[in-house]
Amino acid sequence: MKIFTTILLTTIIVLLSSCTDKFDEALLYGDWKTTDWYILDTGQKINNQMDFSFDSDRKYTIDYGTEKEVGKYWIAVDYLHTVEDGKAEKKVKIVNLNSDTLLMEMNRGGRLERLVLTK
């Protein structure tokens, strides 16, 4: 019975440690400007604005130029989850996040797009 308990505890510890977030959420805090946005498989540029602001209270704003989106966010492993006030949850894959660059991939209308933002 002692061996079973030891194996069970070890398994639980390994599983819990593997569920940690891949990216430090604090690196998101601040204002991010779109510097590059394109469709991955064709390289076609998308010339729209999508600037982000994230705060430490897990609130975000996206400025599309003509309208704004406001809501809450969180990171789970390598995905950024957002829920616009009164809307459904969305998630995008974080490819890279450091102190001055955020690289994300998202599926919009069946097309995989890459978005590069800088502080």
Instruction: Report strand order across the widest sheet.
Output: 1-2-3-4-5-6-7-8
**Secondary structural class:** mainly beta
For the termini, the CA-CA separation is: 55 Å
Major beta sheet summary? 8 strands, antiparallel, barrel
How does the overall form come out from the CA principal axes? globular
- In total, the number of strands is 8
Detailed description of the structure:
- The radius of gyration is 18 Å and the shape is globular.
- The longest helix is centred in the first third of the chain and has 17 residues.
- 11% of the residues are buried.
- The protein has an eight-stranded antiparallel β-barrel.
- The protein is built from one helix and eight strands.
- With 119 residues, the chain is mainly beta.
- Strand 5 and strand 6 form a beta hairpin.
Keywords:
119 residues, mainly beta, eight-stranded antiparallel β-barrel, 14% helix
